[in-house]
Amino acid sequence: MSERKPYPSDLTDGQWSLIEPVITAWKDRHRPVSGHQGAYAMREIVNAILCQGRTGCQWACLPDDLPPKSAAYCYFAAWRDDGTDRVIHELLRCQVREKARRLEDPALVVLDTRSVHVAAGVPASTTGLDPAKRVPGRKRGLAVDVLGLVIAVVVPAANTHDNAAGIALPDQVAEHVGGTVQKALAGQGFKNQAAAHGTLLGIDVETVRGNPQDKGFVPQPKRWRAGQTYGILIPHRRLVRDCEHRPASSASRVCWAMTRTMTRRLTGANTPTWRDPKPVSA
Q: How many domains does the chain have?
């Protein structure tokens, strides 16, 4: 790692050691015929991806002392397409659950969706208008466990009905964690189609309805974990507005944001405030 001033998004030595074996194994499988090792260290490539995810800058606007777009995006796209980002995410997720004295894979998940605006230049063919929330853009659907860890993520157009996410998310859950999940808690937007599809997978999809007598926002037991996870993702400015041309890149951004969060949990690091400390008055 070259000598430079560290950024708050950089991985510490301990955090890098958590994902370095996966990256090194990937690099060994993709050695060029020429034998050239590349001009940039893999740790710096990951730091560049995390820096962009946290600050929301464009690829071309990465700081000069980090690898440029030509290198950083190349690896981001390669890891997105071959699932390496997901492998890293799943490895850390299992470790976080074990640290919390839970089994590697959950028995219950929470399903939820949020509609987000998109940036200029995002293809119109992958976007739509959410008629309920009046948000033009994409819909981010998550399946999370009771610790708020992401199990599955889908990114359809915002005009896609929640039932579509309610079908796609259980499919991913069954693929990623096998047959351990027995129950899924979903919001009122998920209708009978989601429950029927869950039954085919051996997952009981229950629609959680709020008390009509309640006034204002009242967190629902266990379902509030999904809202907490969306709150964890929002400080990663690349996720505030969907800037990705490909929905697969948007899903990868969620994986990297949660990867950064989980490395902090595993090493006991505090989340940076990204604000200058207030001067202490005399």
A: 1
DSSP letter for each residue of 83-136: THHHHHHHHHHHHHHHHTT--SS-SEEEEEEEEEEB-TTS-GGG-EEETTTTEE
Q: Which helix (H) or strand (E) holds 174?
A: helix 162-177
Domain-embedded: residue 199: yes
Under DSSP, is residue 162 helix (H, G, I), strand (E, B) or coil?
Answer: helix
Question: For position 143, which CATH number holds?
Answer: 3.30.420.10
Q: Is the residue at 81 inside a domain?
A: no
The pTM for the full model equals 0.89
What are the tokens at 46? 């990951």
Q: What is the dihedral of CA 19, 24, 26, 29, to 10 degrees?
A: -160
**Residue corresponding to tokens 């690349």:** 238
pLDDT in tens, 118-174: 998 899 999 999 988 899 999 999 999 999 999 999 999 999 998 899 999 999 999
Put residue 10 in one of left, alpha, beta given phi > 0 → left and psi -120 to 50 → alpha: beta
The CA distance from 235 to 260, in Å, is 12
186 domain-assigned: yes
Residue type, 92: L
Per-residue pLDDT of 244-263, as tens digits, reads 999 999 999 999 999 999 99
